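>> Question from a student workshop board

For tomorrow's exercise we were told to take the sequence and the ligand below, predict the bound structure, and bring the output to class. My setup keeps failing. Could a helper post the expected result so I can at least see what it should look like? The ligand is NDP.
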Amino acid sequence: MSGTTVADARGVSVFTQSYLDIVKQRDPNQPEFIQAVQEVVASLEPVLDRHPEYRDQRIIERILEPERVIQFRVPWQADDGTVHVNRGFRVGFNSAIGPYKGGLRFHPSVTLSILKFLAFEQIFKNSLTGQPIGGGKGGSDFDPRGRSNAEVMRFCQSFMTELFRHVGHNTDVPAGDIGVGGREIGYLFGQYKRITNTFTGVLTGRSPGWGGSLLRPEATGYGAVYFAAEMAQKAGMSLEGMRCLVSGSGNVAQYACRKLIEMGAKPITLSDSSGWIYDPDGIDEEKLAFVMELKNERRGRIAEYAQHFSGAHWSPTESTADHHAMWCVEADAAFPSATQNEINVTDAEHLIEAGVKLVSEGANMPTTPDAQDTLVDAGVLLGPGKAANAGGVAVSALEMAQASQRQRWSSEEVDRQLRGIMCEIHGACLSAAESYGFGNDYRHGANIAGFRKVANAMIDQGLV
Ligand code: NDP
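>> Workshop helper replied:
Here is what the output should look like for this input. Compare the format with yours to find the bug.
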């Protein structure tokens, strides 16, 4: 591989391009995966220069190829008797530092490309947590929205009837993601237990009543705010009083809002796939309780927020990837917490104009690479998803530890560990970025710190 840093017109170095060529040749139809690879490999040239053993052992070439990919048919029956067929996947990307760990996503947009990008990101995120977990991801193009509980249960049972043979508490431990919350984890676990005749920690995100960790639902959103607090403090700022744009209204967005409120910040937006709301007075605990009941119990639309609370505005959109006007609202910080590629270059320019000084990515890859460059070049502090949203998987690892010890820690204890882990991830990102000449660019720091631990483990374990 070339060690030169010369970049082409799009800012992609020859080094990065040489690896992109490999991936594009093998998987030309996987744009999200290619995007995630570009984002990580762009940080690694100085690492390979300092550690020639990674080049000799072809660590990047090996890390770009998943250890295994499983695809299967998921047939199920709707309440009206019609038969449906969805596609199920599980990607085991890298198990150098522990069993595959990563969520399951149920959303009509799910493809192998999206799951490979998510599993690839998960390798480095999991490494950053300091916990012994490898990278994986899975899911289905099934859409749980508008489906009855009975339909979701039948789907989950059919999905697990194939998945069970590929997962296990020492092999691969799935969790939730978009469209997979406590309800789905319950149905999936029930079927796994029934088929295997075992009660193990095969899934995380379980209810605390039957083996789940306290604070797991809160962990990703809380963690993204803790990471933002660390970035702010390091830059001589504080989250207190900051007006915050939050996108999404699911698990991550809800708990990011709660922690922001607790820390004296003021969340002012939320969104879903049909639109976004702006509440200039701020979303307080009472309004958040309304959102949680709306989204988690009634599974309704965020538009109802604006009907319920005077002073709030609702704007319709075709999809989250289309709610660009939201990023024009004047604010101090942004927490994109819906889905990938929700902030493009134009949005990034709007965020800068709107006064945003800090972006903490609650979602995975919510900001396109050129939008990230725009933000960082303008001096905006950017916490990349693989670091900022690692709190969820970190507490999943704590759930695995509690399950294997048959213990249950208090929520104060889990929160203390979560905060400590986020603080350590922040420090690891900064010191890796500085050490390899990337200043305070958290993106490079996260990639390098996450990569090195996995690369070293791969070398230790030989050519497997
Ligand atoms: P949820 O399903 O709980 O919520 C997702 C929210 O985003 C919903 O408001 C949903 O709208 C909206 N949304 C998602 N995808 C789309 C889309 N393609 N088009 C339009 N709207 C969309 O998911 P989570 O909160 O768990 O996950 C949000 C993000 O955070 C994802 O990127 C996920 O990978 C990431 N993440 C989650 C972790 C976790 O612990 N849950 C851990 C780390 C990262 P609607 O209500 O209309 O469906």
